[in-house]
Specification:
Number of strands: 0
Number of helices: 17
Distance between the termini: 63 Å
Oligomer: single chain
Shape: globular
Structural class: mainly alpha
Length: about 400
Amino acid sequence: MEVSLSTMVLVPAIAAVAPLLVRGIGRWLAIPLVVFEIVLGLLLGPAVLGWVVPDAFLDLLSEFGLAMLFFLAGNEIDFRAIRGRPISRAAIGWIISLAAGFGIAALIAVDLPSAAFIGIALTSTALGTILPVLRDSGDLKTPFGISVIALGAVGEFGPLLAISLFLSGRSPLVAALVLLLFALLAGIAIWFAARGLGERLHHAITTTLHTSGQFAVRLVLFVLLALVALSMLLDLDMLLGAFTAGVIYRLLMTGAPKADAEAVESKLEAVGYGFLVPVFFINTGVEFDLAALFADGRTIAMLPLFLVLLLVVRGLPSLLATPPEATPRDRVATALFGSTGLPIIVAVTAIGVSRDELDSGTAAALVGAGMLSVLLFPLIALAIRDGSRRSRRRTRTDDVGMPTEG
């Protein structure tokens, strides 16, 4: 396996520079970290400067990064917090998105197989991308944040199921049976984890937390790769296994001492967000087919079209999940966060192009729309959300009879 020396140096250099750019520009504009990772990968990749050269090693690390992104998303979801109204409303909204996505895609795609890829791509929500944004803004534990997490959970898990059912190359019946087998095996693992299996592991985690043993991190890698391998063995999308592994590991850590759980979480975020996940986003920019996007006027026009369709197909149904007490600004912000999608769009388009069922220009337009959604939608949502918070503060100030701001 040949590895480009420039790639070996420049990819971690981009990963190191990106947070500094976020910190520097953040004084004026809060731009998500992944935007800089993607844009720098695009600028230094073959599409522009050509300093970073795609190779097999970078592709392998990128695949691990994508799997780790979905693992962290599954691990981050607190199902007790989103159960009930948030998750049920989010699920109903996603079903509407799926129907709308297929219906609209059938009108603009060249054939039905292409429409299937486009339709599923339009139903995704990038939970792993918006979680850090919600955490940094302090919204993670609020009713607003819980509703967005529910949207993201369904918006990642739902498309993974759709990929396995409709894009696996099997008949729907066989695909459903294989998916049922995976669900059965994963359910058994989840049952054991929920029944207190993790408590037997907590002692080993505690005693190796600050030693070279690092049992917690090694256990994560085992659970992650075992579920990914099971997905691949059943010819399902590996991201389904990665997401499920995150859910299982969260259950295994239930009941662990708070200090130990926080230490393990910090180590996982260091491995994921500090190493593997940035490689995926940087490689997304490096491998972005800019030439295919600008090959003709049709593909160029499709980019803004897909961006608008993300808002229509995914954003509008996301409004169902907003809390009853949400303000109009919060509802708009929820729709924008729900419309933010990239990882699954990358995965779906890659499958379509590899099977010659989706042309590279359409794939580039979809990925480009996903990149713009990551750049624009969280940024606009945060600005709207800040305006909502300021409005509520002014209302509370008026209620106690004090002068209003401004």
